């Protein structure tokens, strides 16, 4: 499988039509929300092509694909466009054959949504930490808040008594949460996992998943990207290419 290509930035021409039978995904390599879509594409075996977008110096035409200028966005050969990570992932799961990653039972589906809502309390703080780091601010109070929210989520997961957050096998909820965990190190909160044994066990299990392995970014690449990103360097998105 070919490696990533340089990101398309302002002034870059738009790619041509999407080939028949292919989903085109507009992503940024290091974006956790874009990784969500990439995970689902791989997990379901969907034929796809990746177009990398420089999210710090976006081409003008990209706003025609994604009105908010955010990744991920996907495009079909019919020119249909879907954006926002959860909407993209739900669409891919509903439209394409293979194992359904979202429960069909309404109560189980609601449970997964509630679990994601629980996790969002922690992930919201994680992104506040990123903002604080960018402004060279002290993160100790935010880190304490993050740990509190993560411990609460760990307690929720413990009560499930299942190997995966979504149940007995990997599901949509697991793939939605995983990309944030992969970035705990660069956020400066990886040591918080020492206080959340159930989430640590889950994370170690998820690292063995084939789709996770296929979309995994080496820690040193993430670290290199993040250092440049904090400086506002638009070249950060193409770190190590």
Automatic annotation (TrEMBL):
It catalyses: L-dehydroascorbate + 2 glutathione = glutathione disulfide + L-ascorbate; RX + glutathione = an S-substituted glutathione + a halide anion + H(+); methylarsonate + 2 glutathione + H(+) = methylarsonous acid + glutathione disulfide + H2O. The gene is gsto1. Residues 105-230 form the GST C-terminal domain. PANTHER family: GLUTATHIONE S-TRANSFERASE OMEGA, PTHR43968. Keywords: Oxidoreductase, Transferase. The keyword Manganese does not apply. Pfam families: GST_C_3 (PF14497), GST_N_2 (PF13409). One of its GO terms (biological process) is glutathione metabolic process. GO terms for molecular function: glutathione dehydrogenase (ascorbate) activity; glutathione transferase activity; methylarsonate reductase activity. Its EC number is 1.20.4.2, 1.8.5.1, 2.5.1.18. Residues 21-100 form the GST N-terminal domain. GO terms for cellular component: cytoplasm. Exhibits glutathione-dependent thiol transferase activity. Has high dehydroascorbate reductase activity and may contribute to the recycling of ascorbic acid. Participates in the biotransformation of inorganic arsenic and reduces monomethylarsonic acid (MMA). This is Glutathione S-transferase omega. SUPFAM superfamilies: GST C-terminal domain-like, Thioredoxin-like. It comes from Xenopus tropicalis. Belongs to the GST superfamily. Omega family.
């Amino acid at each position: 499988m070919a490696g990533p290509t340089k990101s398309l930035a302002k002034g870059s021409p738009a790619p041509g039509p999407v080939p028949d039978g292919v989903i085109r995904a507009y992503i940024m390599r290091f974006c956790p929300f874009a990784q969500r879509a990439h995970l689902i594409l791989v997990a379901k075996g969907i034929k796809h092509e990746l177009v990398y977008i420089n999210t710090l110096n976006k081409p003008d035409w990209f706003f025609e694909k994604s009105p908010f200028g955010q990744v991920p966005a996907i495009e079909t050969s019919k020119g249909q466009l879907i954006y926002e990570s959860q909407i993209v992932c739900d669409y891919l799961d509903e439209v394409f054959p293979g194992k359904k990653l979202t429960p069909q039972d309404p109560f189980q589906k609601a449970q997964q949504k509630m679990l994601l809502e629980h996790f969002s309390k922690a992930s919201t703080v994680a992104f506040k930490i990123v903002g604080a780091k960018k402004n060279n601010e002290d993160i100790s109070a935010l880190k304490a808040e993050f740990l509190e929210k993560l411990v609460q989520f760990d307690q929720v997961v413990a009560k499930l008594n299942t190997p995966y957050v979504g149940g007995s096998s990997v599901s949509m909820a697991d793939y939605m949460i995983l990309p944030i965990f992969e970035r705990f190190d660069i956020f400066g909160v990886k040591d918080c996992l020492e206080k959340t044994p159930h989430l640590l066990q889950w994370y170690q299990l998820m690292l063995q998943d084939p789709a996770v392995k296929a979309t995994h970014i080496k820690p040193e690449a993430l670290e290199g990207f993040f250092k440049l990103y904090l400086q506002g360097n638009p070249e950060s998105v193409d770190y190590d290419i």
